[in-house]
Amino acid sequence: MTAVSLTGVSKIFNPGRPDEVAALSGIDLTIPAGQFVSLIGPSGCGKSTLLRLIADLTPASAGTVEVAGKPAARARLDQEYGIAFQQAGLFEWRTVQRNVELPLELRGASRAERRARATEMLALVGLADFAGHYPAQLSGGMQQRVAIARALAVHPPLLLMDEPFGALDEMTRERLQSELLAICAQTGTSTVFVTHSISEAVFLSDRVVVMSPRPGRITATIDVELGTRDDAARQSPAYFAAITAVRRALRGPGPVPDIVEAEGAAAVAAPSPRTSGPASSATAAP
Amino acid sequence: MNLLRRVAPPVLLGIAALVAWELVVSLGRIAPFILPAPSAIWHELVVQRRNVGEAGVASGLNALVGLAWGTVAGVLAAMAASRFRVLSEVSVPLAAVLNALPIIALAPILNNMFESTSSVPRRLVAGIIVFFPVFINTLRGLREVDPTHRELMTSYAAGGWTFTRLVRLPGALPFVFTGLRQASSLAVIAAVVAEYFGGLQDGLGARITSAAAFTAYPRAWAFVVGACLLGLFFYLATLLLERIAMPWKTRLIS
Predict the structure, then answer these.
(1) Shortest CB distance from A89 goes to which of B149, B173, B248?
(2) Of the candidates A52, A76, A94, which has its C-beta nearest B157's C-beta?
(3) What domain count does chain B have?
(4) How many helices (H) and strands (E) does chain A have?
(5) pTM for the complete prediction?
(6) What is the ipTM of this complex?
(7) Cβ separation of B251 and A134 shorter than 8 Å?
(8) CA closest to B168 among chain A residues
(9) Domains plus CATH for chain A?
(10) In this structure, what CATH number is given to the domain that contains residue B204?
(11) Using 50, 70 and 90 to split pLDDT, how confident is the model at B97?
């Protein structure tokens, strides 16, 4: 069962105009159900665009995007995913409880069901006591937790997150990372997580997808096996090995770029000792 | 304590200004037809309190009706203009022209269009004056949608009307009230001044002109004070309504 499947996807903004931008090119990516995948790359590499293609917030110029085995547009209409952004994007005129209820409301869930589900989700993110507050009364980290609760409210099989912790301080960020992992494990949700933090990508993910800009493409895919993800995992050799691998992949292939460039997304499938070699060796035992 | 510190300075300043006014008039021997003393105006206000009250209610009702229809029309027009691009391109300049027009100058024409016992002309003038600030502010509010909110609602597959009802209208509410705050005082001014140009003479404006015509200047001033209080009442009522309508803002202040 695959959660997300992209084949030959490209995205061109303003096609045929002078300000034409090739945002993504030749993207092939398959995410099995239950996996946590991070998209990482420098600014402008199209990682957010890729997320928006999966979410059907913007259409692909070429290729196919499938979510839960259906075309992305169908999946969006069926609310097959929940989404969270860098800005919490809470509706300031609704209480925390009613913010979480919103996606359920739009699905036509009954009042009792909405209330029960929102209470459950707020408990999950540890904000049960704040149900009656307005968003502006909460700290940034708490707002972001409400946004995550809202994204999970419809029990989506897929969670899409665009730098959700980007605006938070390091302490809050680490705590929310652990909470997010616990929630994903508990609910069995597949996750696509956009970030530009190497450590965040490695700590959270089963797989880190490294992208490069102009045009945005996948240059490496690095599997991470950390076992239990706790504070000890942040100290483990496997963690540091994976960080090194991601960093190398981000720096680019160095003097011999041809192989990775040519093979694009398939770079990991056929690792070369000189380019993506270190990447695949990062698949270390816990 | 805090309230005292906030309220005390303007109250003290007001009292000082009144005392200074009284002294200037009595010591400077200024003729009452140029500027009557506050004590004389106060005396007239007490004597005429029933007349001021009745005229105030008549003008207040006109202003309220004008405020109500002008606001409803302004919000509806803004919703239509924000929904259809063509409409907004046409309506914004049109509204600007409407606003540039000295609307009070319409009063004599409107007065002649209806019979002399009709309250409609004054209410029309008040409404037209209210329309513009409400329309422009609401339109701005409806257009300023947080991009994150837009994407979220798309991800929920929410339709146009759902989006308007759940996101754009509540998001525009602070802007509506900005317009309404300006409009509430304007509505009173329009309702009072429209009477200067004929029509039914039962409001504050008519009383001011007739008192001035009889050279009863303190009495004219007493009605001016009445108009001032009416405008203040409308403004404060709008502020109160704003607090009730947007509890998420009030909660922050308290």
Answers:
(1) B149
(2) A76
(3) 1
(4) 10, 10
(5) 0.76
(6) 0.75
(7) yes
(8) A91
(9) 2-80+156-280 (3.40.50.300)
(10) 1.10.3720.10
(11) confident
